[in-house]
Structure formats: structure tokens, C-alpha cells
Design a protein that fits this description.
Distance between the termini: 71 Å
Largest sheet: 6 strands, mixed
Number of strands: 11
Radius of gyration: 24 Å
Number of helices: 13
Order of helices and strands: HEHEHEHEHHEEHHHEHHHEEEHE
Amino acid sequence: MPAAEPVSDTEAEALFADLADLPALALAVSGGPDSTALLVLAARWRANLGHGPKLFAVTVDHGLRPASRQEARRVAQLAGKLGIDHKTVRWTGRKPVTGLQEKARNARYQLLGREARRYGARHLLTAHTLDDQAETVLFRMARGSGLAGLGAMARVTPLGDLWLIRPMLAVPKERLVATLRARKIAFADDPSNRDPRFTRVRWRKIFPTLEGEGLDATRLATLARRLRRANAALEAVVDVVAQRADIAAPGGPITLDAGEFRKLPEEIALRLLGRAVASVGSEGSVELGKLEDLLAAILSAMDARKVPRPRQRGTLAGAMVTVSGDRITVESAPARRNPSKSPQKRGSRGRKSLFTKGG
């Protein structure tokens, strides 16, 4: 196998080209090979450009390894040599025993976002690579994600009032390592990247077998791109249906024509129902599996109705859904008297219990 080629200045120019007119960019730099390459390539691009956004590097020290503080200092030194402002922020407080990587990631984005705002940057750059994209696709496949989840990471994603940008999402990790080695720039080696306790590490061990069957990172990333395209097309259709159903205004209640709802393709009906629940609900995002259960219960209730037609009602994510006559009503659910016996938890055990008959 030929050695990986370093990323050229011409390639770097293409990676950052659409960012040239922004006033400031915050760079998330941990000190590992990917983020160190991001720092080096962004600095060189800015220097070759001769103008462009101010660059600001932020390192989050999670305090999880003894070497992390020294690694942050090395990033600061490198940033100084490259003429880039740098700040290290620390994740303080007690660390969780379970779900460590997810909680550390959430803390990292909160700290990075805070520093970006302080610097006046509304765009945060991370060093996610082609390999990260492939791992994300596999991880979400294993979880049974829908189209949106299997679309994995987009190059540009909203992050609160900021924009998260992944300029190197199509670049293999090995090329970033080659870029640093060609310039004799050191980088940190995080041993947690080889710790089999973490799901992504276990996926990396499977990669050689998958590549042998033709399922390499490029093909997985291509799959993600095509699924994002399909997801966007479906969302555009739902936009039209939602406008016609008048569910744009938050708070509700929202009334849907049961006959028209029954005619919709199941995927469109599912997404329309999800938007209605999200619009009036009070418990955040809706799990896809529970939303599918709710849709199945609604369709079953509509198909099984007899005259006189009993009203049937269920709740999900803080929204109450009622099927009555020729209407489906989605409104805010009343406050729970006993959270431990919530309708949402009962509904997760089986579809039949999602709806109860009423007068």
C-alpha cells in the first residue's frame, strides 16, 4: 500500500475557501494528530491568503489523563509559533462513572462554544475526518437510526447560536498524520483511542475486515451523503404538508384531518406527527422508536373504529394525541401526577398501551 500523501497548500485552500470572508474562526485543538493538522493547515491557509478571518485556537483539558495539561501547553506553544491566539479551558468538577465519552463531548462543546463567543467567533471548526464519518455511520447503524441519523455528520451544523464546521470531513486521518510528519510537527497520542471499553475503538478494530469486503470509509461516507440528500428531500415534502396542516405555530393545539393523514405515505405521516409532537410537547426530542409506536397506534385506532366511535388518547414527550371522529388533535399534555407511571414509559412496552379509550 502506498504511503499517504500530505495535504497540499492547494488542497487546504479548497478546504477553507468558503470561510475566507468570515471575521473570526475558533479552532478546537486537543493536540492529537487530527486537530493539530487543523491548526497547522488553517494557519498556513490564512498566511497564504494574506487576509481573512482571525484565528483562535481553544484546547479543552478534560483532566482525565495526567498528560493532558502538558499536551495543552504544547498546543499553546505551537499556536504561538504559528501566530494564532490560544486559550486552554478545563472541565472541572467530578467526572461521571458511566457515559464518560458522551458527557465529556457535551462538556467540550459547551466550553468551546463559550470561548468562541468571547472571542467574537460565530464559527467553530473541528477536525473530524473521513474515518470519523465512517465510524459514525457504523455506530448509528448498530443503534438502528433512521435516515437523519445515518446521514451522520454534515460539513456545517448549527450549534446553538454558532455554526459547527468540519472542513476535513472528506480527508482520511492518515493524510493528516502524513502532513504533520512531513513538517516534523509532534502531536499527542491519547491512549483512550485504543481502549476497548469505548464503542468507537471496537469499531476501529473491525474496519480492516470491512475494508476487505469493500466497505471502506469512502463508501460509508458516500452512503451518508446520499442518505442526507434523501432525508432533505423528505423534509422538503413534509414542509409542504406541514404548512397545509398549519402546524408551524408552536404551542398548539394542532388539529389534523384523520382521512387526509391516513392517505399520507407512512414516512411522511411519521415526520409530520413528529413535528406536531415537538411543536406542542415539553420534553425535548422524540425517540424515533416511540414515535413509530405512536403512529402505529394512531393508524390502528383509525382502522379499528366503529360507530359510535370512542375517543382514544395517548401521550408522548409532553404532548397528548387524541383520535376522535375525523380528527387527530395534538396538544400539550397535562402535568403528570406520578412521573414513575408516565404514559410515555408505558407506551415503550407495547403499542397497544399507547392509546386509552375515553368518552
